[in-house]
Amino acid sequence: MKILVTGGTGKVGTEVAQALLRGRESVRVLTRNKEAKLPGGAEVAVGDLLDPGSVRSALNGVDKLFLLVGNVADELTQALLTVAVARQAKVKHITYLSVYQAERFPDVPHFIGKYAVETSLKAFDTPFTVLRPGYFFQNDAQLKPVLTGVGLYPNPIGKAGIAAVDVRDIADAAVVSLTTDGHAGKTYNLVGPDPLSGPSAAAIWTRVLNKQVRYAELPMEAFEEQLRQIFPAWLARDLRLMFQGYQDRASFRATPMLLR
User: Which of 54, 60, 68, 56 lies closest to 5, judged by CA?
Assistant: First the structure.
């Protein structure tokens, strides 16, 4: 069986490709960069999700699709085009990486966009599975300079606690959904057993680093301004709305749904 992985050079996609390869599956990774570093044993397909012809070529000889679309301005268009091409190619199964409680965040572009893709998948007869992970624990890796420097945890995830997950667990769930039966039409929440809050994250880093780390309660305006120094304005606002949603919707928690 051959599986096409989109987003296979990123944080989650790399883990998914590696996990599939460990299970001795045949893996093809779609990338725009033919020089991209891929997991050993993965086949490269050069293409772009905005180019249906290249996606069609990448799907040639493929049985199943792991669909991950990055947080980009045209994410919804990329995802819907790819689903349409996959349906025409008659793939046997699509596993789509969405986000936990997507429908509860209608003001967050990349959340509600993912929910629209879920809706599209349900409208047709191609077998699919939706994976809905929470906040990635690995997001904290980019905070190393602030954590180890001034000792602040700056991500404004709030005090109520949110659902979070390790990307390696997402990869394991993806493999199960793609290689075992019984997951067609199913949606799975992928979250850890305990909610993560700003203060609890700071406490964890205090123990790990053996130095005091405090939760920085930045005003959202200041947080967005910091993001604008790194990201395009649209993405800075998108992320601000996401974190604001985490704070406003205190029930952003979950009961995990286990794949077996």
Answer: 68
Structure letter (DSSP) for residue 212: -
Query: How would you write the pLDDT of the chain (260 residues) with one tens digit per residue?
Result: 999 999 999 999 999 999 999 999 999 999 998 888 888 889 999 999 999 999 999 999 999 999 999 999 999 999 999 999 999 999 999 999 999 999 999 999 999 999 999 999 999 999 999 999 999 999 999 999 999 999 999 999 988 889 999 999 999 999 999 999 999 999 999 999 888 999 999 999 999 999 999 999 889 999 999 999 999 999 999 999 999 998 886 545 455 454 54
Give CA–CA dist 256/139, Å, rounded.
20
Task: Give the three-state DSSP class for 93.
Answer: strand
3-class secondary-structure state, position 116: helix
Residue type at 159 in one-letter notation: K
**What are the percentages of helix, strand and coil residues in the chain, rounded to 5?**
45, 15, 40
Rounded to two decimals, what is the model's pTM?
A: 0.93
